[in-house]
Write a structure and sequence with these properties.
- The chain is α/β, with parallel strands linked by helices and about 280 residues long.
- The protein is about 30% helix and about 15% strand.
- It has eight helices and eight strands.
- It has an eight-stranded mixed sheet with strand order 2-1-3-4-6-5-8-7, sandwiched between helices.
- The protein is globular, with a radius of gyration of 18 Å.
Amino acid sequence: MFQPNDYDIPNADIAWCPGCGNFGIMRALKTALAQLNLPPQNVVIVSGIGQAAKMPQYVKAHMFNGLHGRSLPAAVAIKMANPELVVIAESGDGCSYGEGGNHFIHTIRRNPDITNIVHNNQIYGLTKGQASPTTMRGQITTLQIDGVYVDPFNPIAVAVALDASFVARTFSGYLDLTVEIFKQAIQHKGYALVDVFQPCVSFNKLNTYEWYKENTYILPDSYDPTDRVQAFRIATETKKFALGVIYKNPSKPVFEEQLIAYKTNKTPIAYRGLIA
């Protein structure tokens, strides 16, 4: 069995601020990979640009660091070329829902077998505190000095509305919950969105560790995530935000399995021509 430290990169120069929620996400991811007993050489972590997008540089696995907002198309292409790999796309709320919003929508439609972990700190951290797509209405930032004028983008509601095959939310301060959700997302056959609330201790003084604890609740064991109507109601709640697996549709066809290249030959495209 692997241990979380088997995914450490010795002497990695981690550029996150002390107390950053990204540390909790990284710990949870390494723990989930270890508990699933996944060899580092079988895992690919793909990201765009931003503080969250530095994650692949700190985890021992294959990596691809691409353009801002473009983690998902690269992740889909990698999974198409080699379906045997565990592919995880990671980036922040700005990269994923702002610059990458179009890819977010169409990746849900395609349903590739990848996990999409979004580090949602409700702010642009790398560029010093501007409003992101998920920043709350009225919140004052370094750029929006009179407050944000628009309602925040709701990725959970959009994902449920588009019938994403796995939709979950967690909080980086809850390690055990986050590990369990990551494991379920990685094991899910199809596109799995995990929106992770995580504090930005330097540039978001509203959405703190305490704020997330006070303004979230964990879904009960009796909750049925296959009930899409109920899931959409949960997704549109604004007083308190649900944590857990909110919706899943395991019957949705998987994108790469429908490709003509794999209809009669299951050998990954990446290996064809290399195997005698």
